[in-house]
Specification:
By secondary structure, this protein is mainly beta. It has one domain: SH3 type barrels (Roll). Helices cover about 15% and strands about 40% of the residues. The protein is built from two helices and seven strands, in the order ααβββββββ. The strands form two sheets. The protein has a five-stranded antiparallel beta sheet with strand order 6-5-4-1-7. A two-stranded antiparallel ribbon has the order 2-3. The longest helix is centred in the first third of the chain and has 6 residues.
Length: about 80
């Protein structure tokens, strides 16, 4: 996603939309491999993203400050 597209749309427009990460996302010890589908939960200095709970252990992943160029919209 381009920075221009990111800046031209409000947080309300993005909330609830689904994206797919184009590259590995890292935060501390957390790593999300490329190609995962995540839900946008907010837009503050990048995206706040949440991955659906694991079907085996029910752990849900939440990551913030993801730059817009690292994701692409799945639905829009």
């Amino acid at each position: 996603m381009t920075e221009t597209f990111y800046r031209s749309h409000s947080e309300a427009w993005f909330k609830g939309k689904r994206v797919q990460n184009l590259e590995e996302l890292k935060s501390g010890m957390l790593r999300i491999p490329p190609g995962q589908t995540l839900t946008i939960r907010g837009k503050q200095r990048g995206f706040a993203l949440e991955r659906d709970a694991c079907e085996h252990c029910q752990v849900s992943i939440f990551i913030t400050k993801v730059p817009p160029h690292k994701v692409t919209l799945v639905d829009g």
